[in-house]
Amino acid sequence: MVNREPGDQFDPMTYELQPNLQLYRVFSNRRTGPLDFNPGLGSPTRFAFFGDPLVPVLYAAETEEAAICETILHDVPPGPGYVLYDDVKNKVCAQITPTRVLKLASFMGDGLRKLGTEARHVTGTMSSEYHRTVLWAQAAHAAGFDGLVWMSDRRNTDRAYVFFGDRVTDRDLDIVPEQGRIYAAGPGFDRIVDYLAGVEVELLMA
Questions:
Q1: Is the preceding omega at residue 53 within 30 degrees of 0, hence cis?
Q2: In the predicted model, what is the mean pLDDT of residues 47-72?
């Protein structure tokens, strides 16, 4: 299969994310809140950053498990492994929901076929390819989309999302009340330990 790159003929399938659908976001409570878009801080990611000025982004996932895999387990290879408690203690999970239909470019299933590429070239690459994969997000932004949707490479049963902060604002998203978890202690700690154990990842306290 010929692997295309985004260009002038970029014409993706549209995925409409419906209002009131519950999404999950795992993030550090030291730096941000549930509806805060990243303005360009930290290392490059698969679909950020691009633009001048930089386009802020917010990542989310279809399930809590996918959100954990896309953040806490992002750089942990499959199979037996470990994460440090220091990498978990400031992480929290919030449920958020769109308040309007969000028009997303589909980078999954038939959407990839229409674009003439495969997941391994776009949504399943190593971080060394982020300078190239970000061009797909830039093309979708230029085409007027609110963000992207794809199947999580870290948990390929669930969708992952990124929203563009100059198209989607905190007025277009709501926090689902009383549904957050703090992973540092209590029920949230038990939840993360149980999930990690189920995928053969040990949480090391020191």
A1: yes
A2: 97
